[in-house]
């Protein structure tokens, strides 16, 4: 279906009538008109509503590309989310007609020809603009890296600049996208108005959020992308990582320089090593410092040691924290399980306190879980936004269903629950009833190192190698040796 969209607020009535006519003549069955610049703090509320309604195969027709946003980063974000959702875009002024898989680069180049206020107009956040790339080159880098067609290091080589320059450019673009537009009051309650993954207002980043999905469905990756947005706008972040997969947040992707300063406590890539007795000290430190950090508890040995550390950590953090802090609990069901061990009761009540009453102490809790059915229901029910990646088990989908009953529309809920098993890696339904958003999105590529990558079988086979023959008695001896000495023998081919 062809759907027209234009901003009557930015043109005279005569021009608006001409644009309406041109869109109808282009075959649009519906024309959506943006009448006011700012409504409820949302810069383009009609466009946001339209994007949430569109389905794969639809085509959006605009009079010109800058109808989609007043700055290049915004247009880039919209083009990416349309492309990711399989939606086409046609611009009448630029005579562009793209299939969903066509080149956003062409659009951005055309946009740059007639719209100069997007790039280079504002400085904010991590590092400002790198001086050594022209605006056209910057646009090229941003488009190619964020669309996933080229790596950051390949673009650094192409333009003969350092990887750090590319990292700073990407971080600055994200910060720009998070910043209010140069003209017009686009702030609401001090929060810049923009979209996340093309559909959520930026203010949604300050909501309590839950991300659920099967193993490898892309939860941690999606959360990293959202946390990068929080860091790009200067937010404090603490990620509790029981699996040792978040350290990459402190590194740049593809060997590029780190786009954000992140401290890693504990784990195999620690800046500062941790042991299980340090919960109280670390809770006080994190509560008092303006920093982003990863608390990696993956090598604490036992589940009981991790719980004891977390009990002390959450207690001290709750007491010490007074400024806004995004607290990300990956594998949150470890800390707040529906069926709690006796030694986990205190921790459960601490996590509940942070999730239910933490707002007064400025916590923004984000919960990530493979198994929403085993995450404590009183904790999950507090999430204002639910992101569901692929979910197959009926119990887990039922848990999502219970959240929907408490928060959202049941009929829509049934439709979405049925569709959850078909989602691909990196895709999720984002449900934000408070923002009237329900949409399927593909989470974009992250800027930091992908440290939760699933090891590929062929890569491991190459590295380790299989036994050429199975020598049962040697294996038996090796096993007996391991049992007797309590140590592991290295593999022999
Ligand atoms: N949106 C995406 N774009 C590109 N790659 C992705 C995306 N989502 C996930 N991946 C790839 O899949 C890998 C696994 O994803 P991720 O670590 O997020 O899974 P998960 O849902 O957190 O799984 P688990 O429950 O086992 O922790 C990532 O490291 C990344 O390589
Ligand atoms: Mg994960």
Write structural notes for this entry.
The structure is a single chain. The protein is an alpha/beta fold and 493 residues long. The protein has three domains: 2-119, Resolvase, N-terminal catalytic domain (Rossmann fold, 3-Layer(aba) Sandwich), CATH 3.40.50; 135-173; 180-442, P-loop containing nucleotide triphosphate hydrolases (Rossmann fold, 3-Layer(aba) Sandwich), CATH 3.40.50. It is built from 16 helices and 18 strands. Strands 12-13-11-14-15-10-16-17-18 form a nine-stranded mixed beta sheet. The chain has a five-stranded mixed beta sheet with strand order 2-1-3-4-5, sandwiched between helices. The chain has a two-stranded antiparallel ribbon with strand order 6-7. Helix 9 links the parallel strand 12 and strand 13. Helix 3 (72-84) packs antiparallel against helix 4 (104-114) and helix 13 (394-407) packs antiparallel against helix 14. The longest helix has 18 residues, at 303-320. The chain is globular, with a radius of gyration of 24 Å. The N and C termini lie far apart (60 Å). Residues 99-130, 178-193, 460-464 and 486-493 have low confidence and may be disordered. Adenosine-5'-triphosphate binds next to helix 8.
């Amino acid at each position: 279906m062809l759907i027209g969209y234009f901003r009557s607020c930015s043109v005279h009535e005569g021009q608006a009538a001409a644009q309406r006519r041109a869109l109808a003549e282009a075959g649009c069955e519906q024309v959506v008109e943006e009448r006011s610049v700012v409504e409820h703090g949302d810069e383009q509320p009609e466009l946001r509503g339209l994007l949430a309604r569109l389905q794969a195969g639809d085509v959006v027709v605009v009079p010109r590309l800058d109808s989609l946003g007043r700055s290049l980063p915004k247009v880039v974000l919209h083009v990416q989310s349309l492309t990711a959702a399989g939606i086409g875009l046609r611009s009448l002024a630029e005579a562009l007609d793209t299939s969903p898989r066509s080149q956003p680069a062409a659009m951005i180049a055309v946009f740059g020809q007639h719209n100069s206020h997007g790039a280079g107009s504002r400085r904010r956040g991590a590092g400002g603009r790198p001086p050594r790339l022209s605006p056209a080159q910057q646009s090229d880098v941003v488009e190619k890296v964020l669309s996933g067609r080229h790596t950051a290091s390949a673009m650094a080589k192409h333009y003969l600049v350092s990887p750090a320059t590319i990292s700073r450019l990407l971080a600055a673009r994200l910060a720009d996208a998070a910043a209010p537009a140069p003209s017009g009051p686009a702030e609401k309650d001090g929060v810049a108005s923009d979209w996340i993954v093309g559909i959520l207002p930026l203010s949604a980043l300050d909501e309590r959020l839950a991300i659920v999905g099967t193993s490898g469905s892309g939860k941690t990756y999606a959360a990293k992308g959202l946390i990068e947005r929080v860091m790009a706008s200067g937010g404090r972040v603490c990620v509790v990582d029981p699996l040792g997969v978040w350290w990459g947040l402190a590194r740049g992707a593809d060997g590029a320089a780190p786009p954000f300063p992140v401290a890693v406590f504990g784990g195999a890539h620690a800046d500062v090593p941790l042991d299980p007795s340090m919960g109280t000290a670390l809770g006080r430190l994190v509560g008092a410092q303006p920093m982003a950090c990863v608390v990696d508890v993956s090598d604490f040995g036992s589940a009981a040691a991790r719980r004891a550390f977390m009990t002390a950590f959450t207690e001290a953090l709750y007491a010490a924290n007074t400024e806004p802090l995004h607290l990300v609990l990956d594998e949150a069901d470890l800390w707040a399980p529906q069926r709690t061990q006796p030694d986990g009761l205190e921790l459960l009540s601490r996590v509940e306190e942070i999730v239910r009453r933490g707002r007064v102490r400025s916590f923004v809790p984000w919960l990530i879980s493979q198994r929403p059915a085993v995450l404590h229901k009183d904790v999950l029910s507090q999430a204002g936004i639910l992101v569901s990646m692929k979910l197959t088990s009926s119990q887990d989908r039922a848990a999502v269903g219970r959240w929907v009953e408490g928060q959202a529309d049941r009929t829509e809920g049934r439709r979405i629950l049925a569709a959850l098993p078909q989602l691909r890696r990196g895709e999720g339904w984002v449900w934000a009833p408070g923002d009237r958003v329900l949409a399927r999105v593909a989470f974009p590529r992250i800027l930091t190192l992908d440290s939760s990558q699933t090891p590929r079988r062929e890569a491991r086979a190459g590295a380790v190698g299989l036994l050429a023959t199975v020598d049962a008695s040697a294996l038996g001896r090796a096993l007996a040796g391991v049992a007797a000495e309590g140590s592991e023998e290295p593999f022999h081919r």
